[in-house]
Amino acid sequence: MNDITVMLGRSMKHVTRSLDTIITVTITPIAMLLLFRYVFGGAIQAGGGNYTDYLMPGILLIAIASGVSYTAFRLFTDMKSGIFERFHSMPITRSSVLWGHVLTSLVSNGISVAVIILVGLVIGFRSSAGVLAWLAVAGILALFTLALTWLAVIPGLTASTPDGASAFAYPLIFLPFISSAFVPTETMPGPVRAFAENQPVTAIANAVRALFEQQPVGSDIWIALAWCAGVLVAAYAGAMAVYHRKIA
User: Where is the chain membrane-spanning (predicted)?
Assistant: First the structure.
């Protein structure tokens, strides 16, 4: 734990000193929130209520998907700089190097989500959720962040260029647009609707939205948790296998 704490502190310093990271992870999702609220919101009917409330889960998921791309980029930079070899020559737990990056993603994305929610409250987002519902939302978003972050570790360790390391996040950022994050899936044509209703972002967005509104979550929360847990386990196993091959 001491080794992980040191690596977490090192990686967090890199984040706070990187202006482009702050802009991408926080300011860009806020800009999208304002765009959908004040430009597209008047033309979109979704959920029959406040559109800001409807779109907030999708904005949060996009922010997380954007943020985890920097985990891949920072890992790639460490691999190419030779700092991994230096760390491995020290009496530390080898896996702490990866966990430092992963927990940095969890912390930085948590801060980004909190800032976006505060901005949402300013422009009209309202939630009737109680403490337990907010904790459930935090748990789902944390699990989603961990799943995508461990997925990001794999290209971070295997990519040959910085662009290749972070490019994996582009499909993840695009995925919420083909889901129930911004409009109900019932409005989509057949094949698109079928894809949207059977991909993980829809279940996660629906579960978070229901928790925010104190509505019954039904099966969405279990589907969301199953997707997140499945991706997390597979990504963690794949990332550790790649890491052990790299340091062998």
Answer: 21-40, 55-76, 97-125, 131-153, 165-183, 221-243
Closest CA to 55 of 143, 136, 135, 116: 116
pTM for the complete prediction?
0.87
**If you ran DSSP here, which 8-state letter would residue 36 be given?**
I
pLDDT digits (tens, 9 = 90+) for 186-236: 888 889 999 998 999 999 999 999 999 888 888 889 999 999 999 999 999
Q: Angle 30-221-146 (CA atoms, 0-180°, nearest 5)?
A: 60
Q: What is the DSSP letter of 180?
A: T
**Cα 152–167–86 angle (5° rounding)?**
50
Report d(CA 113, CA 147) in Å as an integer: 16
**Domain positions in the chain:** 2-247
Length reported for the chain = 248
